[in-house]
Design goal:
Helix content: under 10%
Distance between the termini: 46 Å
Order of helices and strands: EEEEEEEEHEEEEEEE
Radius of gyration: 20 Å
Strand content: 35-45%
CATH architecture of the largest domain: Sandwich
Number of domains: 2
CATH class of the largest domain: Mainly Beta
Length: about 250
């Protein structure tokens, strides 16, 4: 088993300091995607939008039922560039309301993890996985700075992002928190052969340690962690589902 740092230092199962910086760019612009919802079957709704905010790292796709003012639930975090999402197999004859929220913030340097092949075993299942609990691990006196309105700057990015293999399917991640005003942290994974990252953990502010029990596609993957905050919600798109398909 091995883990390689993608930027510069290479140590077994340990990531590098996030030292790759870039000039500060313009602050996030106040754009909101023009979200639309289309009923593509009686119980499937397709969402489409324009991704015209160059500073956004991605969007949350959120839904509510009942009324537009109901509490919204996050369906998925999607990376910048994605402009379509299908919400399938919905409750028949029910109103659904959707919105997007952009999220911003700098990511750490990335690490590549290569776990050994094999399914989740009994020994791993018997582990209490205390190491996997999200925790704010003290890191001494660390200078923190705001990340809001910083555009694509790496200021406030997590550093010392480290991956430690705990068992054939488990990885523990740790990092140093440099953000003073984050809404939380996103652990992101890019499976081997994929061109894009996916969010695999959404964490509270100040968290600096978390474990992951991997899916088969996550055993060979590149990981990073992002300090993030939410932007302004989009317009609300609405559709009401039809009758249940025959035979369901």
């Amino acid at each position: 088993m091995s883990a390689k740092v993608l930027c510069p230092l290479s140590v077994l199962l340990v990531a590098a300091l996030a030292g790759c910086s870039s000039p500060v760019q313009a602050a996030p612009v106040s754009t909101t995607p023009d979200l639309s919802a289309t009923l593509v079957s009686p119980v499937d709704i397709m969402l489409k939008w324009q991704d015209d905010d160059p500073a956004a790292a991605g969007h949350t796709v959120e839904f509510a039922t009942g009324t537009p003012g109901s509490e919204y639930t996050v369906l998925q975090y999607v990376q910048a560039g994605q402009t379509m999402y299908t919400h399938p197999d919905l409750i028949p004859q029910t109103p659904f309301y959707y919105r997007l929220r952009p999220f911003y913030g700098p990511a750490s340097a990335a690490v590549e993890v290569d776990l050994p092949p094999g399914a989740y075993d009994d020994k791993a299942a018997a582990d209490d996985h205390a190491w996997a609990q999200p925790l704010p691990v003290p890191s001494g006196s660390v200078a923190k700075q705001p990340i809001r309105g910083a555009g694509r700057s790496t200021a406030g990015a997590p550093t010392e992002f480290t991956a430690t293999v705990m068992d054939p399917n488990g990885i523990k991640f740790t990092w140093t928190d440099h953000a003073s005003d984050e809404d939380g942290y996103l652990l992101e994974s890019k499976p081997k052969g994929s061109a894009t990252y996916n969010e695999v953990e959404v964490l509270d502010p100040n968290i600096t340690s978390v474990g992951l029990t991997t899916l088969p596609t996550e055993k060979q993957a590149t990981y990073r962690v992002r300090a993030f905050y939410y932007g302004k919600p989009s317009n609300i798109a609405h559709q009401t589902t039809g009758d249940a398909p025959p035979g369901t």
